[in-house]
Each structure stands twice: as C-alpha cells, then as structure tokens.
Amino acid sequence: MVIQVVNFNLEGITHEQYLGAASEVAPAFKDLKGLRSKVWLSDPDNNVYGGVYTWEDRQSMEDYLNSQFYDEVLGSNPSFANVTYKAYDVLDAPTSITN
What we know:
By secondary structure, this protein is α+β, with helices and mostly antiparallel strands. The chain has a single domain (2-92), classed as 2-Layer Sandwich (Alpha-Beta Plaits), CATH 3.30.70.100. The chain is 38% helix and 36% strand. The chain has 4 helices and 4 strands; from the N terminus they run E-H-E-E-H-H-E-H. A 4-stranded antiparallel sheet has the order 2-3-1-4. Strand 2 (35-43) and strand 3 form a beta hairpin. The longest helix is centred in the first third of the chain and has 15 residues, at 15-29.
C-alpha cells in the first residue's frame, strides 16, 4: 500500500465554496482504480487543504496523477495553489499489528 498526502491553498474561493465543490466531486473518487480511501483535510485558519489517500499500490497513484480526472480536479484547477504531495510506502508488518 501507498499513502499519499496532498496539500494546497485555496485561491479565489471561500471555505464554504470549497466544501460544496468537494461534496460534488467526492463520489467520483469511489471509481478510481486502486484507491482504498480518501480523507479530506482542512485548516481554514491557515488556508491549507488537502487529502490523505490510501492506494493499493504506487502504480494506482501514478495512474491517478497522470489522469484527466486529476488534471481537471486538482492539477490545473485555478482554485488551488501551491499543490504538493508526498507518497509513503506502508510498512505492512507493523501496520497489521496496529490495525
């Protein structure tokens, strides 16, 4: 498994507008191949938003990052600035103990 942590700042939209847009697009994430879960994050006081994605494997994450869906939703969306992400491999043995 791979954990991907994405962060960005809102630009030109409010927190409330973001909530509405996120609620509209959230169902589409259920159809992403290899995505086990997505947790939506917000820190409105510091204008930091993002998500924590759990992927079955790195290839599924890469397929998402190279998709038209990613580009439309996040990659070239003018409402999101300073988009960054970090990917982490999951250590299966200790994770299985704590889950």
